[in-house]
Amino acid sequence: MERNQLQSFFLTLPNMTQDTEHLFDRISQFQEIMMMYSCAAREMRTKLEVLNDDFSVRYRRNPIEIIKTRIKTPGSLFQKIMKRGLEVSEHTLLNEIHDIAGVRVICSFIDDIYEVARLLVGQDDVTLLETKDYIRHPKPNGYRSLHLILQIPVFFADRKQKMTVEVQIRTLAMDFWASLDHELHYKHEEGSELQDVEEELRQCADVIARTDERMQNIRKRIYGEATWEKKQEVEDGVCDSESDGE
Ligand code: GTP
Ligand code: MG
Questions:
Q1: What is the pLDDT at residue 243?
Q2: Ligand 2 centre from 192 Cα, in Å?
Q3: CB-ligand 1 contact for 143 (6 Å cutoff)
Q4: Cα dihedral angle (87, 93, 94, 97), rounded to 10 degrees?
Q5: Contacts of residue 108, Cβ cutoff 8 Å, sequence gap at least 6
Q6: How far is CA 35 from the centre of its chain?
Q7: Could you give the domains of the chain?
Q8: Which ligand has the nearest atom to the CA of 83?
Q9: Is the pTM of the predicted complex or chain greater than 0.90?
Q10: CB 102 within 8 A of CB 166
Q11: Is residue 242 very low, low, confident or very high in pLDDT (cuts 50, 70, 90)?
């Protein structure tokens, strides 16, 4: 958001001073914090890319298909602050709101989701603040995804700061579903007469979940129960690359 847009925004906040110098200080501070979150999202992306690269060298398969990062827009950030009755302050931005930096990780298989989560949380500079497992416990509307609130240190020019990042890990199919669900809620506020669409979407979520499980089981039947090592042995024994053979 441009500085003048931010300025008009800050001026609409309750108790906001019209004192220009003070206002500019706050805008600069806000922009600095958003920059810090953007760096935190990049750090988290790097951690995930490193894991994925290591997997692809060791086991010739990537658990992660896509990584997307986003920083909360000032509009939705302030909406959340107001909704929770918090004040607009550095403390709130750094300690109370946990999803300013968001990273979405898309995997092919359900097992990959838990493997990526396990490896990430196991890193000694990563602190797990909260887990919401909407895969084992889907939301009533059918939403599935594994949410982790993680804290990682980020090194800036003159200081080290612990930054919080929300990581959502899901399969391609869960992501496909969530995008359409998001459109439904974005386009139609609650209470509108789209209950039949909601019901159909919920049924699709169940079909998708069953399909994810079946795909996972088929993979296990191809490569054996679990381990990544096992897969490598099979691959080494059978062929050198995917395109060999059939
Ligand atoms: P927020 O205040 O929205 O952050 O909710 P929360 O603090 O209870 O967190 P939760 O982990 O439940 O959800 C955080 C994020 O997950 C949301 O901002 C969405 O991106 C995503 N999410 C959660 N529920 C749904 C859902 O029903 N549908 C879709 N499409 N996304 C969801
Ligand atoms: Mg959120």
A1: 41
A2: 23
A3: yes
A4: 90
A5: 63, 65, 171, 172, 215
A6: 18
A7: 41-239 (3.30.460.10)
A8: 1
A9: no
A10: yes
A11: very low
